[in-house]
Design goal:
It comes from Strombidinopsis acuminata. One of its GO terms (molecular function) is aspartate-prephenate aminotransferase activity. Keywords: Aminotransferase, Pyridoxal phosphate, Transferase. This is Aminotransferase class I/classII large domain-containing protein. Strand 6 (about 80-90), helix 5 and strand 7 (about 115-120) form a beta-alpha-beta unit. This protein has about 325 residues and is an alpha/beta fold. The protein starts with a helix and ends with a helix. The longest helix is centred in the C-terminal third of the chain and has 22 residues, at about 215-235. It folds into 2 domains: about 5-205, 3-Layer(aba) Sandwich (Aspartate Aminotransferase, domain 2); about 215-330, Aspartate Aminotransferase, domain 1. The strands form 3 sheets. It has a 7-stranded mixed sheet, with helices on both faces. The chain has 12 helices and 13 strands. The structure holds pyridoxal-5'-phosphate. Pyridoxal-5'-phosphate binds next to helix 2. Pyridoxal-5'-phosphate binds near residues 14 and 92.
Amino acid sequence: EVEPMSEVTVTVGASQALFLTLQALLNPGDEVILLEPAFDLYYGQIRLAGGTAVPVALTHDVEAGEWKLDAEALRAAVTPRTKFIVLNSPHNPTGKAFTKPDMEAIAEVVREHDDLLVISDEVYKYIIHAEGVSHHHFAALPGMFDRTVTISSAGKTFSITGWQAGWCIGPARLIKPIQLLLPYVQFCVSTPMQQALSRVLSLADEPFEGHDSYYKWLSEMYRKKRKLLADGLESAGMKPLRGDGGFFIFADTSDIEVPEAYLRQSTPAAPKMTRDWALCRYLAMEAGVLAIPSSPFFSPQNRDLGGNFVRFAFCKSDETLSLASEKLKEHFG
Ligand SMILES: Cc1ncc(COP(=O)(O)O)c(C=O)c1O
C-alpha cells in the first residue's frame, strides 16, 4: 500500500523520474554506484546533477552464461560520499533479473550506512520471460521502502515508449523534493496520457487474449520473440547470454571474426574504433541488422569487459525478427 499523494510522483517517463530524483536528491560531489554494464542514460544524468558515477562491475560467469553480482565489490565501493546505488532489474542490457539473495546482499550493504539510498529502476518488471523467474521489488525488503526511490513507466509494459508516462514511488521524505522540483522542469505529464494510463492499469489485470491477464500475455509474447532472435543469433555463431527479462539479448560474439577493414575505420561516434563498434558496423553494413555496441554500458575502466558483447533488441514484429535471423545466418552462419 502506498499513499498516492505523498509517496508517488507521476513523471514524463522513467527518464524524467530518474532525472528528477537525481536533481532533487544529489548534491555536487556525491557518488552514485552503478552495476556495470549499466543503462547508458544514467551516466549523463548523474553528471548533469553534479554527481560522480562509481562503477562496480558485475562478474561475467562464462559457464552460467550470465552476469553476477559481486556483493563484496559493491561493499568496497561505498564511501562517505555515496548517495545512491542504482539497481536495475530486470536489467538493461543483460536481461538479468536480480535474485532475492542478490537483493538481500544489496540491502545488507545499505543497512551498513545510515544515509545510503537506492534507486530501483523497474521499467521491465512485467517483462519476465524466463520460466520460473519472478520479479522482486527491492523496496519490499525489510527496512528498504524508506531507503528507496522505485522508478517505472508505462513505456515498456504497454509498448508505448513515445507516450512518456512514468512514476517514482518512495517514502514521503524522498518523494517530496521530487514533487517540488517537477513543476519547475515540466508542469505535469500530459493529462490525456495520465487518464489513459489510469484506465489501462486496471484493465491489464483482466483476462487478455486467452491469458489470465495482459501481463501474462506480455511475458508469453516476449518469451517467443526472445527465442526467435536467440535461435537466429546462435545459427549465426553468436552466444546469447541467459536473460530473464526485458527485451534485449546481450550476445557474446567472440567467435565472429571482425574484418580488419572495419577495425581500422573510425567514425565521429567512435573516433578510436573498438571491436564492439566495428562489429556493429559490420553487422549493419553486411547483413542490414542493427545491434548496439557494449561500450556505452561501461565506464572507461571496465570497457574491456564488454569488448565481445553487443546488444540486440527483440521488441520487434516476428517478421522482422525472422528476417534478421535469416540475414545473420546468410552472412555469418
Ligand atoms: C533501464 C531503463 N530505465 C529507464 C528507461 C527509460 O524509460 P522511459 O521510456 O519510460 O523514459 C529505459 C529505456 O530504455 C531503460 O532501459
